[in-house]
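It is worth pausing here to work through a concrete case rather than discussing structure prediction in the abstract. The textbook approach is simple: state the sequence, then state the predicted structure, then interpret. We follow exactly that order.
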Amino acid sequence: MPELPEVEVVRAGLARHVVGATIAAVEVFHPRPVRRDPRGPDGFAAALAGRLITGVHRRGKYFWLSLGPVDGEAPTADALLGHLGMSGQMLLQRPGAPDERHLRVRFSLVVEADADPALVPSDRVLEMRFVDQRMFGGLLFSPGGAVLPPEIAHIARDPLDPDFDDEVFVAAVRRRSAGVKRLLLDQSLVSGVGNIYADEALWAARIHGERPGARLTVAQVRSLLAESRQVMSAALGQGGTSFDALYVNVNGESGYFDRSLHAYGREDEPCDRCGTPIRRVAFTNRSSFFCPRCQPAPRRPRA
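Step two, the predicted structure:
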């Protein structure tokens, strides 16, 4: 699933090209991607037609386009909220480009006159396409959601957010008895960190994912937070992590941070720090990867 760096790459790409554009028309080719919108496919399309895109934002793994009012109507502060799920893509294409096999929703945009000529044709029409093979992702129209859609108000800030409160996070982790990897994936505590970057941050901080939060020191939690920021910032610089063709940016390009991973996906390969083979264990229908020497498993408390 795309995590914070991958979603931020998509958000930044959209922000460069679609802010200031007007949504001329919306076509929904499959109802599942808009299943959470109570208006249904037709109502979803109608609510967006004629809207001006005023900004592109992100909270954790969610992104949203803030929308201005339709010409002549009362001011609004609505949004188009999206989540990429396992395989979602938001692509920008010139009109007439062949439809992607798993194209689910097409937005026809009229962009500003000074838009990038390499992407936008002379008639200033551009298509924003939501493509999703597995259809776990989705889109919905969020009334009043321009600043923060109420549907994701429960999602915590992410470690790269300048308003993220380190001390609140440290205290919350140290109050919990759950394993620290589960806490990293708890979107009510911290958002944007997924399975890949949790394993990488834990490896860098030399902490086993099953170690209870309550048994970590303040310094260890702060170190883990710092490593989470470092690994996600590094991934951002390389366009995110792509293990297959499902994750791409708005131009259809893959990231290449997978070449820099130290733990995730490296079962039986030598640890880059000590040479011990990386181990894989089952974790909530997924996998965890760690170095058994650098990240010793926590001791079980005596009966």
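Step three, interpretation. The chain has two domains: 4-152, 166-290. The first strand starts at residue 22 and ends at 28.
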